[in-house]
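Attaching the record inline, Q. Sequence:
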Amino acid sequence: MNIALLGYGKMGHEIEAAALAAGHHIVATFDIDRQGTLNALRNSGADVAIDFSQPNAVESNVKHCADAALPIVIGTTGWDNAFEKVRKMVDDAGIGGVIGSNFSIGVNLFLQIVREASKVVSDAGYDAYIVEAHHRGKKDFPSGTALRIGEAVLSGLKSKTKTASELPRGEAPAADTLYISSIRAGAITGTHTVGFDSDEDSIELTHQAKNRRGFASGAVVAAEWIVGKKGLYRFEEHIKDILERT
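Structure, as predicted:
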């Protein structure tokens, strides 16, 4: 499989290594100083593009891929406001797309565990919280993964109806609000903790990324899966199908 990389920073290099290890070829790399234009994508010979760029570049990257009839995997986060535009471009072009706040297989298994745990504790009177930590260079907060974890908790915990990550000074979150706290420091790759707390005890579930390899490998697996498909898919919603790909 021939892959074009949209974004060639730390994650781009990790994806390159994972793709080569899986027997694929990187036929083009694009970054801030070398934009992924329509002609460049068409002439690259790529079968699929993988985007780990910047939030403000996602729309234009998807448009170029749509015009080039090239399926795309999007691992960039922080562009949620453009989701409907991106989905329309993908649908109108008849291409396939996979989006994910986190392409780590372990994180997506963690999401399933959190959904089930939230259902189990729902009637036992536990309160809940989420804490996420990343390196100081991460620009969006809370992380896209933390937002997906929040959705997983809300799907099972009856006492919570919404999430929040900021509060007016001097105010506490309402009882029905699941609060997400963010830490930005050092070189933390990514740690996400879900806690369930009662007067008697606490239960915590944590996923800690040791490096970026897991994210890169998952993105390559998603790229293998999306070629030949149409429509926009969320990685976490199709993890079972993706893992069972033939």
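The first strand starts at residue 2 and ends at 6. The radius of gyration is 19 Å.

More tomorrow.
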